Hints:
Blueprint: H1 3-9, E1 11-12, H2 14-26, E2 31-36, H3 43-53, E3 58-64, H4 66-73, H5 82-91, E4 97-101, H6 107-113, E5 117-121, H7 132-137, E6 141-145, H8 153-162
Amino acid sequence: MSALVQIEAKIHSWESAQAIVQQWQKQGETVVFTNGCFDLLHYGHLHYLAQARDLGHRLVLGLNSAGSVCRLKGPHRPINDELTRTWQMAALTFIDAVVVFEEDTPWELLQVLQPDILVKGGDYAPETIVGADIVLARGGKVLTLPFIEGYSTTALEQKIKNSL
Length: 164
């Protein structure tokens, strides 16, 4: 199978993501879910996502749509368009599925997918993570991973602006 076909096969609608998650869970695999904008991919993102994948057998990434990023981060974002961000995430070997969501939070997507583990970066407190209630209600886990200082999209964006 070509690399392009492999990448494209990881990009899912909500319905196909639900089916694949259920299939993995029926096979006894632990499904980890995380989400974010992932606008300018950097070391902090890569480290975090690799760690998230190590928590289970499969990693599903909920990706904020362009409209969602704009509402959350401001009219100057996203820097990378939705197609680019989706393909970048799907190209990463440790991500098994990418699902775009239009809402400002992944709460509705989490209701559909019902992952075993929900994970966010260390800049979140577990009790404030959107969807924690959904995952905990089915006996899952909600975890945070350490935030890597010095790596953020906002800092990269500022660095680019300052160099102009």
